[in-house]
Automatic annotation (TrEMBL), chains A, B:
Protein name: Queuine tRNA-ribosyltransferase
Nucleotide-binding found in the keyword field: no
Region (RNA binding): 249-255, 273-277
Organism per entry: Leptospira idonii
Any Pfam family the entry gives: TGT
Record-level GO BP terms: tRNA queuosine(34) biosynthetic process
Catalytic reactions on record: 7-aminomethyl-7-carbaguanine + guanosine(34) in tRNA = 7-aminomethyl-7-carbaguanosine(34) in tRNA + guanine
UniProt keyword annotations, A-Z: Glycosyltransferase, Metal-binding, Queuosine biosynthesis, Transferase, tRNA processing, Zinc
Description of how the protein assembles with itself and partners: Homodimer. Within each dimer, one monomer is responsible for RNA recognition and catalysis, while the other monomer binds to the replacement base PreQ1.
GO molecular function: metal ion binding; tRNA-guanosine(34) queuine transglycosylase activity
Residues bound to substrate: 93-97, 147, 191, 218
Comment on bound cofactor: Binds 1 zinc ion per subunit.
EC number annotated for this UniProt entry: 2.4.2.29
Length: 371, 371
């Protein structure tokens, strides 16, 4: 279904805003954090867990799903949502970023990018049209365009080349999508590295096209925090208020705070799930390393202020033990907690905006998650 | 609490019987299969999963728990059940079998066995008394004695030596336990390899001591199936009807069928959980290898006759995909299914005995799981 976005409240001191994103039957409160279910599974959790946690919108990775299970399987099952027994809303990236970051070798061509699978070295090609077709097979509610995400540290020449390619492909993509929207939405991706002029140019051009939403790509890719913040601040005043804004691959509590302060509505990141598997959990008092010796005899929960089922049932000492002996349940219990934390964090963040308390919220959490 | 065992029904054609094993507040229907929670976790599942599956009795491994988290932690938490938030009944082995099978080096002494940890090579010693103390710290409802389990293929001389040691330690153990029963129960372990005379001697001697239950050790340790069945058949007529009988480390569907036919009440095995992680699940039609190419487009459940939440929610094709890409949820979903299967299998086995249909049940399942 075509999305509808409605702004609910705006912070008077910043560009922070809350809103409602409607994707068919699904209503998503923003700002929203989307857990990442790369290959049709949010790592270590089941689809029931995701529903129980209350997530209405998750992310899948087109590059991975294209390689496995592949288009034929997804077509046969009627899309990823049916395949993984997850009935809520789904966003997929275009696969471009993984081609650049995971694939051993890739080569740009006029009409797309050739690459080798990171799994078996087999040869493939993505074009702006083929990644939309793939995302149609996946059946995502929000699809992303194929773009050229130049790595941090690229020359201005390389950034300009990336922008030209990204814009050319974006135009092709939106035209291809409009021929058969089929209830799915397509977002563009603003590029330009940490160059404010190029970022402004990219935003201006892409907002002139009829994309239902705007994504910022190429941020949180290794640049210093000040650069990250500077670019967000430079773009915030020019973001179209009518459309949802998505900051791709972000992030940490700190990065989300900066994003929201600069008008971002949507986030996704593997950190809450990956860190959980590595034994780092998020709490109302900051980050906790579960493997620390100091937790060996802790009979209390991970976070006494958390009411997730993990904190209600298990002690920190037990979860530490599970991590120390590498039990699989260590990964699932810690992941469950972190995704519960992220959901609560985003909910309270949204409420702070609606209560005109975002400034206090921002200061409180920035201090807790400073390091 | 001291156990109470009550025979409920007996098959007229075999030694199969059903019963009720009461461990304090917990009532366990027998024959029973106990999932293995080696290090305080049934691998890939949470304690809630175990309760949801309906298991009243699970197994922990003393050797592993002694090394990690260790006695101090278990004492501090008030035992393993509180540590892992599992309120039902618990059985622990003595750790002896793991000393012989896992530990790099071990050496018998008059009063116990010295060994090196398989984790860090550190030196330790188990005695009949120390393993009971450790199991008191674990807080198991059923403890096992330290025994000498000679490997399959041992000479008669070695088997006799093992029997002497096992019997001597058993007598010490039961005396040590009786000084402070503390609501826990202690089972002896019958040894003797595949030598019928030694097995008979062992059973006769150990049944003369006041153990609340009798276990058979040293079976399903590599001997051919015929030897396994021959020993069970030789012991069945002499098993004390008043006490529960536990066949350690067994088993497969086939091995359980033979065990029950020969009067066994209790079983434990890592196979249902380990095989699940390796992609093999049990169904009403036999074993299924989840990784098979033939399941790629299977939209139906693992087992259409199974009503577990995995079969009610996910397709075989999806679970195959999760295994192929090694998602952690592949392990937990498959394990959940297999433990559900084992629970249903044991329940229907018990009902077949109570309905005087065990012969038909035995033939049906033996055929399905022959290979």
């Amino acid at each position: 279904m075509p999305l509808r976005f409605q702004s609910v409240a705006s912070d008077k001191q910043s560009f922070a805003r809350s809103g409602k994103l409607r994707l068919g039957e699904i209503e998503v409160n923003t700002p929203v954090f989307m857990p990442v279910g790369t290959r049709g599974s949010v790592k270590s959790l089941s689809s029931e867990d995701i529903l129980e946690l209350g997530y209405q919108l998750i992310l899948g990775n087109t590059y991975h799903l294209y390689l496995k299970p592949g288009k034929e399987v997804l077509d046969h099952f009627g899309g990823l949502k049916k395949f993984m027994a997850y009935p809520n809303a789904l966003l997929t990236d275009s696969g471009g970023f993984q081609v650049f970051s995971l694939s051993g070798l890739f080569k740009f061509e006029e009409d797309g990018v050739r690459f080798q699978s990171h799994i078996d070295g087999s040869h493939h090609k993505f074009t702006p049209e083929s990644v939309i077709d793939m995302q149609r097979s996946i059946g995502s509610d929000i699809m992303m365009v194929l773009d050229d995400c130049a790595p941090y540290g690229s020359s201005v020449e390389r950034l300009k080349q990336a922008l030209d390619r990204t814009h050319r492909w974006a135009k092709q993509s939106v035209e291809y999508w409009q021929k058969n929207e089929n209830g799915q939405n397509l977002f563009c991706i603003v590029q330009g590295g940490v160059n404010e002029a190029l970022r402004a140019e990219s935003l201006h051009y892409l907002q002139s096209l009829p994309f239902p939403g705007i994504a910022l790509g190429g941020l949180s890719v290794g640049e210093p925090r000040e650069e990250y913040v500077r670019i967000l601040e430079s773009l915030a005043p020019s973001l179209d208020p009518a459309r949802p804004r998505y900051l791709m691959g972000v992030g940490t509590v700190l990065d989300i705070l900066e994003g929201v302060r600069n008008g971002i509505d949507m986030f996704d990141c593997v950190l809450p799930t990956r860190n959980a598997r590595n034994g780092q959990v998020f709490t109302s008092k900051g980050k906790v390393n579960l493997r620390n010796e100091s937790h060996r005899l802790s009979t209390g929960p991970i976070d006494p202020e958390c009411s997730c089922k993990v904190c209600k049932t298990y002690s920190l000492g037990y979860i530490r033990h599970l991590h120390k002996v590498k039990e699989l349940s260590a990964f699932s219990l810690s992941t469950y907690h972190n995704l519960y934390f992220m959901k609560q964090f985003m909910d309270s963040l949204r409420i702070s905006i609606e209560n005109q308390e975002f400034g206090t919220f921002y200061t409180h959490w920035k201090k807790l998650y400073a390091s």
